[in-house]
């Protein structure tokens, strides 16, 4: 197995360690201010807590010498905290010296993460301090005060730790600014229609454009501050794959690609669970055991490839294994036996649609269901989680070759670009990432089939989704032609019939209250510049419900 790359964690560790050292120093200063009287348990408990966390973090990141040295400091502090007599001056000198030493170590690690550390002499000093009944009886030499010990006082930090909720508040404010910017554009249009003063109009337009640019720059800056490399999530699975491989008697290599790709922390927090399910399935039921792989003339060690890349305003994450793959015919048979589809559907269903059955609750093609997973168990959870933040998931598998799950996620869950449309007097927003094209089509080109309507777009038949009918809106339909917005999710396509295309616009996503329950075809709402609320369409659920024979025809 590959060793864990701690480079992505080192900067965070150094910042966190500095915080703990400052807390320890503050506690020591308070104890000393009290004149070395019998130690206050609340203060020593706080000191021990900070030292314990620093020790644990040092061990986790592989800095064993630091871990051992901090452990000795804990031992000294525990011993003196049990005293009923005043603390000796030597105790404070030893601890202040230790803090200086650790700060110097952090500084060196920041410049050279691979530096070899050795605290043998310093640990001996602490051992001497523990040898006697108390620190005062120790004859250990006290650390000398050096000029460099006062260099953190003047050091300038390049980072600032901010509670993520504060960034959320800032982003919400930027979202409001985007709404007001939209209102300003509407006002600008009205001013142009009514004001004749050209100089005033030019000044107004210039000011409006500058406000728009500043709002865009501010949004971009805040979004960057919220970004984290996806490596933060990827690295968590190294140990998991190692342990599961040993548990199942398999040899598996976990490979990463594009782990430096950045996305919003809110998305980072959400993707851990779906990736966990996919990787568990790959280890448990995707990759074969070494003996089986050799019979198929495959390398004894299987490979799970975890990759990430940017695509427009989305991130594409793929989990690929070179295991046994999934047989689409087997999926059809299993679904037929479970009563999920009938024989006519099974015979007419292509391989792509058959694979989508794996995402139904409790569906599995595996003969055994283990404690770890069953191929298919949990995939409904994966799909639901991905769909919950306007993401898409696809599966591609070849028997004997392997399986690839591809997840497409928005870079942020807060602000998106959308195509604004009007249907029956109501305004809707379609995420621009799912819009392929918009066309005008004659009514006689919309054909009625057994379970809905379709159109032919070049070489492909597309289901027609009449939004007025889907949402139960009254609408006077055109007798000549219709506007159709062609949308897509994965390999699926559909045409949304609309009354009018309003234009592209940045929209701030607002979640729907839970008491509303499930809202088919809706992923959220947004506030328009004039204060009205527009619903954001969920392309995936619109097309899926159509393909399942819901309101309209399947593809």
Structure, described:
The chain has 555 residues and is α+β, with helices and mostly antiparallel strands. It has four domains: 7-150, Four Helix Bundle (Hemerythrin (Met), subunit A) (Up-down Bundle), CATH 1.20.120; 164-225; 228-410, Histidine kinase-like ATPase, C-terminal domain (Heat Shock Protein 90), CATH 3.30.565.10; 415-547, OB fold (Dihydrolipoamide Acetyltransferase, E2P) (Beta Barrel). The protein has 17 helices and 18 strands. Strands 10-14-15-13-12-11 form a six-stranded mixed sheet. The protein has a five-stranded mixed sheet with strand order 2-4-5-7-6. A five-stranded mixed sheet has the order 16-8-9-18-17. A hairpin with a 2-residue loop joins strand 12 (452-457) and strand 13 (460-466). Helix 1 (7-33) packs antiparallel against helix 2 and helix 10 runs antiparallel to helix 15 (379-388). It is flat, with a radius of gyration of 31 Å.
